[in-house]
Amino acid sequence: MQQIPARLIKSLSFSSLPSTATLQEIASSQPKGKGVAKVVLKKGKTQLFKNGSPMVYSGAVDRIIGRPPPRTGDIVLVADGTEKPIGWGLYNSVSMFSVRLMQLEEEATRDPSFAFNMEKLLEARIDAARELRKSLGLPSANTNAYRLVNSEGDRLSGLIVDVFGDLAVIASSAAWVEKYKQEIEDSISRIDEINHINWRPSVEILKEEGINMSNLSEIYPSACPGRTKVMENGIFYAISLDGQKTGFYADQRENRQFISTMSDSKKVLDICCYSGGFALNAARGGAVSVTGIDTSLPALELAKENIVLNNMDPERISFLREDAMEFMKAALSRNESWDLVIVDPPKLAPRRKVLQSALGMYRTLNSLAMRLTRRGGLLMTCSCSGAMTQSGMFLSTLQGAASMAGRKITVVRQAGAACDHPTDPSYPEGAYLSNVFLRVL
Predict the structure, then answer these.
(1) How far apart are CA 168 and CA 246, in angstroms?
(2) Could you give the CA distance from residue 83 to residue 65 in angstroms, rounded to a whole number?
(3) Would you call 126 helix, strand, or coil by DSSP?
(4) Does residue 437 contact residue 344 with C-beta atoms inside 8 Å?
(5) What residues have CB less than 8 Å from 392, skipping those under 6 apart?
(6) Which of 123, 217, 268, 395 has the largest count of CB atoms under 10 Å?
């Protein structure tokens, strides 16, 4: 007798459900042997998750029903204190995030075919993410570097996908992403313009998820080239896939474009320039001179390569390997100043518990930058620390820096990450980038 494919069996089992089936009934209809455990929330903790917060913290969990208990990566029901399901998600036995919710009951019961089916859900959400980027004009004739999937903002918590031309770089920061690696690759591979996939697991975060990434090269053998070239707003960039994050900071795309509109006839200083994104835009925008400062030799090599890629005048744009603070102090001792200064430091407050000590670093760094900005000049300053952005203290820190510098500042523009980095308002922790453009008097 011919075997019926498993996927068909699953669809037949759903078709036998009543049209108003509850999530519990859908769970009960799962194939025999695939019982779904239930994570029961503490009294008073349910509403936060009903309102859409995708991360169920371990402190919100009262008990787990199911034998044997669920393992990391398993699909589980999430229920209120009366054991009535409110949604389903992916379990982790060791993380501070016990469950990453994938669907609430209303959505799951509206179309049961996606309930408890990660393959179909991944395909649908990656397709939806792609459609959003298309509507935002990405990719385009002059930009082929963009974020395709932005974790909670695209309802796939722990998964980030950046696209660089025909290459997709997948950054994993959740155990479930590692479990469903093949399904994610299959969904990304279906995109016509993608020919290569590179995995960039967040090793330290995955340790907290209970995943040991010590044999990284064995787990992730890669046939991808170590470098590639992209275009953003008509400017070419060489990218190293061994570089920071996924290899390129697509989140600053709109802010870099803005700098190109503000640089005409100006003397520009780019502090913590990495591979030269802001500096190159300033030069393209007509700056009379541009100086980029960074401590990373590999980043500066890319920056210098980018001058050549874009046929720019090396007499007008230069990059120096120096410590940001030391360079600024030395420049002040020489009474130097610039018309436009950009400060985009690395993450100074990676966690909330170090925010207080990071505030002093942000204040000192920006105070020096303000003193280097000519009176009436402009300063773009950034923080990529989620702890800083979410604290709402960045502007007050900048005001403190202005007082320290003996300057007056006014805010001209405030921005965050580019529009291909959507966030979920029910998970404010997803907002991390602050970009403030100031007039310095």
Answers:
(1) 10
(2) 9
(3) helix
(4) no
(5) none
(6) 268
Q: Could you tell me the two tokens for 373?
A: 């900005």
The C-alpha atoms of residue 381 and residue 378 are separated, in whole angstroms, by 10
Residue 371 reports pLDDT greater than 60: yes
Return the structure tokens found at 180: 């469903």
Angle at 370 between CA 326 and CA 337, to 5 degrees: 70
Alpha carbons 294 and 273: distance in angstroms, whole number = 6
264-287 residue pLDDT tens: 999 999 999 999 999 999 999 999
Would you say the C-alpha torsion 209, 213, 219, 220 has a positive or negative sign?
Answer: positive
- Identify any residues that bridge with 377 across adjacent strands, giving them in sequence order: 440
In 3D space, the residue among 270, 274, 330 whose CA is nearest the CA of residue 297 turns out to be 274
The arithmetic mean of pLDDT across residues 103-119, rounded, is 94
The dihedral through the CA atoms of 419, 421, 423, 428 has a sign that is negative
Spacing of C-alpha 186 from chain mean position: 21
* Six token digits for residue 31: 């194939």
What the block records as the tokens of 72 is: 């990391």
- Give the SS3 label for residue 148: strand
Take residue 423 and report the two structure tokens written for it: 């966030």
Residue 275 and residue 269: Cα distance in Å, rounded? 14
Task: Give the integer Cα–Cα distance in Å for 167 and 189.
Answer: 10
| Residue whose structure tokens are 């529009």 | 419
CA–CA distance, 410 with 433 (Å, rounded to integer): 20
Which tokens belong to 256?
């870099």
Tell me the C-alpha distance between 62 and 253, whole Å.
Answer: 44
Give the contacts of 11 (CB within 8 A, at least 6 positions apart): 113
Q: For residues 276 and 258, what is the distance between their CA atoms, to the nearest angstrom?
A: 15
pLDDT, tens digit, 9 for 90 and up, residues 51-63? 999 999 999 999 9
Helix axes 277-284, 253-262, angle to 10 degrees: 40
For 218, the token pair is 């064995």
Instruction: Please state, in angstroms and rounded to a whole number, the distance separating the CA atoms of residues 378 and 370.
Output: 9
Query: Kindly report the CA angle at 213 between 198 and 390, in degrees rounded to 5?
Result: 80
Q: What is the CA radius of gyration of the chain?
A: 25
